[in-house]
């Protein structure tokens, strides 16, 4: 069966990406993770049919593909809101009050942990350590990091996202507006931010588009 016959509903560029990924590995099954990201990009989240397609592309069983998809939290099995707010609740952040931050974010976003708000603006999730323990409690918006977030700042962050509705979220900007103590000096401002809650293979924003240089 040809690749196009397995993923006829994928866009031509993503069919081509899939072809290149499969060619890049001596074993087709090694391409399972990037192919899952592509399937997620195609459908907005990982659908059952998307995972079945990846299984057919890689020669794995659907159960094996589902096992990979369910292990990693960045693969989303349901629709994700415009802004995915991830609150770290691992030990350093927990000790610095992340549970209160999570509650404040849940209240202001109208989305409980693990759900999406009715208007589709927010998805909220608690996550394990995101490597910013020195700046605990740490929060991400569409995987853009903010450190030193308080419950009040968490609420203000949600209000800002709702009202300003930025197309691109930039970690430096959010840190300045809603962050506290950072783990270290991050250095020069980032050039690009995130334009979508679904990671990898998606388009990235540009500082120039936001009038930053
Ligand atoms: S424990 Fe939260 S970033 Fe490490």
Task: Give, in order, the helices and strands.
Answer: HHHHHEHHEEEEHH
Q: Strand sequence of the main sheet, in spatial order? A: 2-3-1-4-5
Number of domains: 2
Q: pLDDT under 50 segments (min length 5)?
A: 207-213
Strand content: 5-15%
Largest sheet: 5 strands, mixed
What is the oligomeric state here?
single chain
What is the fold named in CATH at topology level of the largest domain?
Glutaredoxin
How many beta strands in the DSSP annotation? 5
User: What is the rounded distance between the termini?
Assistant: 49 Å
CATH class of the largest domain: Alpha Beta
Q: Report the helical percentage.
A: 40-55%
Q: What small molecules accompany the polymer chains?
A: FE2/S2 (inorganic) cluster
Counting helices, strands and paired strands, the structural category is: alpha+beta
CATH architecture name of the largest domain: 3-Layer(aba) Sandwich
Q: Mind telling me the CATH superfamily name of the largest domain?
A: Glutaredoxin
Rounded average pLDDT: 92
Work out the helix count.
9
Which outline best applies? elongated
Compute the gyration radius: what is it?
A: 19 Å
